[in-house]
Design brief:
This protein has about 325 residues and is α+β, with helices and mostly antiparallel strands. The protein has two domains: about 250 residues, Jelly Rolls (Sandwich), CATH 2.60.120.650; about 70 residues, no CATH class. The chain is about 25% helix and about 25% strand. The protein is built from six helices and 14 strands. The protein has an eight-stranded antiparallel sheet. Helix 5 packs antiparallel against helix 6. It is globular and about 70 Å long. InterPro entries: Cupin_8, HSPB1-associated_protein_1, JmjC_dom. It is found in: Cytoplasm. May play a role in cellular stress response. Keywords: Cytoplasm. It comes from Nestor notabilis (Kea).
Length: about 325
């Protein structure tokens, strides 16, 4: 096979993505994507002094996961982040001045590409999910993750869709657990974030006295290198850590039919969390909500969420029933 021939056609790739029940790494699928040049220096030039929010956590590993509610946050340019991560003395002032590089990691995570590059829409076409069988899907439907060594996301599962992750710069280690391990991972909805179920276990340093069932888990560990794309199937748990000085990844969540049912469950969860939180002393409630959730929503708004989720679920049921009728007739 020639260098420029991809191992799978878009149709075959989509078939794999939509049916595979195990994580998989795609190689030699993105060699011609302009997004492969999206290293930190290039993005710094494109962003041209625009600030983005970084989440800062401690490199020391405790027995408790470092949830986003326990992290610090700063706004900085990519240039300032690069200077800090290279250990430049110029960082004695500026947004990272209070955070010693040897003790902290920084993560600009979950950044919607459509928002940070809204004034440069032509850049969306650098990402071509059409090669995976999703025509029309580009950077507009993707998110960007920029981290320093040690940056991590606590172990969690995503309620919706499956996940395609392109590694652009540096390497990331993924610890993946199958849906069948859910009860061994002690799931929790606090901190609450729509569509994320967190594990109470710090999987890199588990407290086996408190969480003895964690011993029964089966971790699938993969190190993702630049140019590779990881498929995270629906409801697989994952803990992700940056193992190089600078890491950059781009991901896109692919919607699945099963999401309609999940939306109903998520709408009910939102109602419960907001109802309980409103009964608490408001000043104590902050650790409940992940920073990605702006505020607890009102009962009326929560009912709207639930109604929309239920109606779209029934619509999807009707559509699949009529499809079955057509195919059987």
């Amino acid at each position: 096979i020639g260098e420029d021939v991809k191992p799978f056609t878009p149709e075959k790739t989509k078939e794999i993505v939509m049916s595979l029940q195990q994580p998989a790494v795609f190689c030699n699928m993105v060699g011609d994507w302009p997004a492969l040049r999206w290293n930190a220096k290039y993005l710094s030039a494109v962003l041209d002094g625009k600030t983005i929010q970084f989440r800062l956590g401690l490199k020391t590993v405790g027995l408790v996961p470092q949830f986003e509610t326990r992290c610090s946050y700063v706004r900085a340019t990519l240039e300032e982040f690069l200077a800090w991560s290279c250990g430049q003395p110029s960082c004695l002032s500026g947004p990272f001045s209070c955070y010693e590089y040897s003790k902290y990691w920084a993560y600009a995570d979950y950044k919607y590409i459509a928002r940070i590059f809204e004034d440069k829409p032509e850049i969306f076409q650098d990402i071509r999910w059409s090669d995976f069988g999703f025509p029309g899907r580009s950077g507009k439907e993707s998110t960007l993750w920029i981290g320093s060594e040690g940056a991590n996301t606590p172990c969690h599962l995503d309620s919706y869709g499956c996940n395609l992750v392109l590694q652009v710069q540096g390497r990331k280690r993924w610890h993946l657990f199958p849906p069948g391990d859910t009860s061994f991972l002690y799931p929790t909805r606090i901190p609450y974030e729509e569509s994320s179920v967190f594990s109470k276990v710090n999987i890199t340093n588990p407290d086996l006295k408190r969480f003895p069932k964690f011993r029964n888990t089966t971790a699938h560990v993969v190190t993702l290198s630049p140019g590779q794309v990881l498929l995270v199937p629906r409801h697989w748990w994952h803990y992700v850590e940056s193992i190089d000085p600078i890491t950059i990844s781009i991901n896109s969540w692919i919607e699945l039919d099963a999401d309609h049912e999940a939306r109903v469950e998520e709408a009910i969860t939102r109602m419960l969390v907001c109802a309980i939180k409103s009964a608490e002393n408001p000043s104590d409630g902050d650790p409940w909500l992940n920073p990605t959730e702006v505020e607890a929503t009102s009962h009326e708004i929560n009912l709207q969420y639930l109604n929309k989720a239920v109606s779209s679920y029934f619509e999807s049921q009707k559509a699949s029933e009529s499809e079955q009728l057509c195919s059987s007739s």
